[in-house]
């Protein structure tokens, strides 16, 4: 995507949240990793605990359906649906939206509870990364402290599989910031304030990705 198209989303973020200027370069680097992933046919895996678990689900919602843009299917995709079934396909063609593949690892209740009961509970996210992840995918690891053990185990597993790791943490250096390919460190050390910064950061990334893949031919 052109620098101007990319920059307008960062500029709007910093206009609304000037304190996040310290994160600008890392946000841009995180976007580049995600763009490379999606250009290569990859997917995003996301995990966190507590409020960060809710953020994991929130991010998937922004990527897997229209966020700000309508994301109409291509004519080729619409025709393919109608060719399978003219009636059902027409409804699908008119209502399905373009998606950027993303999976939150926090919502698989049966798998998570079975693994935590039968195996080592702290390795639950790691097991999911091991099963879902492929080389070229990205793991977005959300931890306000940057030291959540279950998130770190998953990040190590991701790196071992040839995935890239993006950390989303607070301002302090941490085990996750040392391990991640890119770490966006929100400028606070208080959990609730870190979480308040995380939302506009991942909204900005979602807007940039949507603009790139669904914003028109000059993306």
Please write out the topology.
Elements: H1 3-16, H2 24-39, E1 44-47, H3 51-63, H4 75-84, H5 86-95, E2 102-104, H6 109-118, H7 124-132, E3 138-142, H8 149-160, E4 164-169, H9 175-179, E5 182-185, H10 191-214
Helix pairs in contact: 1-10, 2-10, 3-10, 4-5, 7-8
| DSSP helical segment count | 10
Strand order, main sheet: write it out.
2-1-3-4-5
From the helix content, strand content and strand pairing, which structural class follows? alpha/beta
Mean pLDDT: 96
N-to-C span: 5 Å
Give helix and strand order, one letter per element, not per position.
HHEHHHEHHEHEHEH
Percent range of helical residues: 55-70%
Estimated radius of gyration:
18 Å
The largest sheet, given as strand count, sense and whether it forms a barrel, is: 5 strands, parallel
Jot down its keywords:
10 helices, single chain, globular, alpha/beta, 219 residues, 56% helix
Question: How is this structure best described in words?
Answer:
The chain has 219 residues and is of the alpha/beta class. It has helices spanning 3-16, 24-39, 51-63, 75-84, 86-95, 109-118, 124-132, 149-160, 175-179, 191-214, and strands spanning 44-47, 102-104, 138-142, 164-169, 182-185. A five-stranded parallel sheet has the order 2-1-3-4-5, sandwiched between helices. The N and C termini lie close together (5 Å). The model has no long low-confidence stretch (mean pLDDT 96).
């Amino acid at each position: 995507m052109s620098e101007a198209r990319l920059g307008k989303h960062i500029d709007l973020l910093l206009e609304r949240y000037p304190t996040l200027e310290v994160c600008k370069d890392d946000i841009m680097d995180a976007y580049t990793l995600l763009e490379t992933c999606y250009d290569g046919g990859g997917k995003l895996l996301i995990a966190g605990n507590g409020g960060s678990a809710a953020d994991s689900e929130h991010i998937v919602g922004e990527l897997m359906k229209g966020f700000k843009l309508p994301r109409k299917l291509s004519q080729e995709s619409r025709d393919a649906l109608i060719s399978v079934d003219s009636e059902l396909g027409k409804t699908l063609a008119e209502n399905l939206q373009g998606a950027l593949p993303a999976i939150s690892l926090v919502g698989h209740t049966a798998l998570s509870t079975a693994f935590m009961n039968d195996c080592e509970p702290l390795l639950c996210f790691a097991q999911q990364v091991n099963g879902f992840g492929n080389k070229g995918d990205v793991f977005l690891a959300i931890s306000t402290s940057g030291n959540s053990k279950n998130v770190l185990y998953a990040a190590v597993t991701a790196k071992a599989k040839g995935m890239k790791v993006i950390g989303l943490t607070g301002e302090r250096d941490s085990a996750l910031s040392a391990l991640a390919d890119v770490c966006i460190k929100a400028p606070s050390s208080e959990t609730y304030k870190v979480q308040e910064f995380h939302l506009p950061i991942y909204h900005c990334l979602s807007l940039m990705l949507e603009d790139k893949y669904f914003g028109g031919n000059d993306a």
